[in-house]
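User: These chains co-purify. Model them together.
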Amino acid sequence: MSTIIQCKDLTKRFGEFKAVDGISFDVSAGEIFGFLGANGAGKTTAMRILCGLSYPTSGEARVAGFDVYKQQEHIKQHIGYMSQKFSLYDHLTVLENIEFYGGVYGVSRAEIKRRSDVLVERLDLGDNAKKLVASIPLGWKQKLAFSVAIFHRPKIVFLDEPTGGVDPITRRNFWEMIYQAASEGITVFVTTHYMDEAEYCDRISIMVDGRIEALDSPSQLKSRFNADSMDEVFHRLARAAQRGSD
Amino acid sequence: MKQFLSFVRKEFYHVFRDKRTLLLLFGLPVVQILIFGYALNSDVKNIGITVLDNAHDVPSQQIMNRIGQSEYFIVREPAADYNDVQSIFKEGRVKCAVVFGPSFGEELYRSGKAQVQIITDASDPNNAKIAFGYLTALIGRYQQEMNVGSAMPYVISTETRMLYNEEQNGSLNFIPGVIALIFMIVCAALTSVSVVREKELGTMEVLLVSPFRPVMVLISKAVPYLLLSLINFVVILTMSYYLLDVVVRGSMLLLLSESILYIITCLSLGLLISNVTTSQQAAMLISMMAMMLPTVLLTGFMFPLENMPLPFQVISHALPSRYYYIIVKAVMLKGLGFGAVWKETLILAGMSVFLLTVALKRFKVRLA
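Assistant: Joint model of the two components:
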């Protein structure tokens, strides 16, 4: 498999504070990569660099083959992003939201029409497609936000704690969508607080105090730390943290 | 371009589906015009007046008749004596009183000189002065008419012309100010709130991750409000023409271009505000307190700037509305051309460039 995200000694300083402290890892195309860490461990900062929102202080990183220093605009063309807030417009209908994001990514009008028909079908939205987003249930919003994030067929989708505040069954359904996207060849880079979700990932990295302390598949990690669950692995690593959560 | 259009269309959905925004956008101008045009009329009419006539002779009666016929005064019941005058004042039914001495007519005929006392309620000094002015003028005219035919060699009478506003239409002064105020509110407040709302919702983050350039995000935010403000501009001019008899004397094209410039200044200000705030309330508060109040107080359309203490005059020079107000007055009321307002235009243009540059710079800094 080809490498789609490459990081080498990636560092971000804010004054004396090293938010991200020399992390190195590779993500393969089509992989579901879990990016774990307690609050304040540096996940968000690292993710912002990879999304082209912020420049690293030192180190190297390439996303979809593009350099994070010089080719941010190219990176943005090839990634999708979904934040924990779902980022849909309440005053717009479902279809208008799709049209808007499709338009922002430069998808042609005819293609938007074609893909949104498929999407409405797949999500079983029916008449809800013409309703304001404000009026549809949270679970649907979340699925919709994810669908919108991959609407322009990116190579990588970044999910920043996508399942916050959602019940376990909806979360489970949501992960089925993630698998579906991965099977279509989209690389999924996901941060989460839920350790049961970590088990669904192909590989996970665990960040503590700005450094990656562990990186492997869930089963390998469990056997290495001699633990029954990812929860235990995480707690053992996170206990050593010097930084308080913020 | 296509991205840009998608964005602008989305902004219009926001405006037209949010009742509060809509109300602020189109309700405010109508209400402001009505308030400033009708309610806040600075003309003083229908002043309550009482008369204490101790003379009961022909001249005093004639003067009283004239007061009664004047549209400025409403004559209440006459006072019986001084104490009565006092108590009528205290009841608040009159704002001024005229007192004739017992031998008013007699003295007038015998010596050619007589005194009449005017008492005004100076708890409102401006109105008191105006009432006093009306009464003096009225008595003066009576005196002149008495002298017609008789030998009265030297009389200097003044003839006053109120240039640019011969009918003394009070609305003329307000309309330019109201236009300046409305653009300030609509552009600065609504733009800043709409940018900050996206920050609050988290959609801004998604937009920044998209290939849509940050500069374009700001521009697409501003363009819809520019268009809507132009609609407002037409509404205000139409209303002031039909309801308040305010006519644009100068070039409409010049007025429109100057207005677009001012709108751009206000929009830049709104964008700057949105950069320094993170909540919609804060953005609203800053727009209202920092923009609206100074615009009302220090632009010169409510209170004359010349009489203000120096610090306020200095502050007023930093307000875009001050210059726009001067421009609109010159073009709209005096019918002057670009030659008369180029300096103000230049200042506004400079302000726009400055504000916009700072806004864009700051917006980028947030990303680094």
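The mean pLDDT of chain B is 85.
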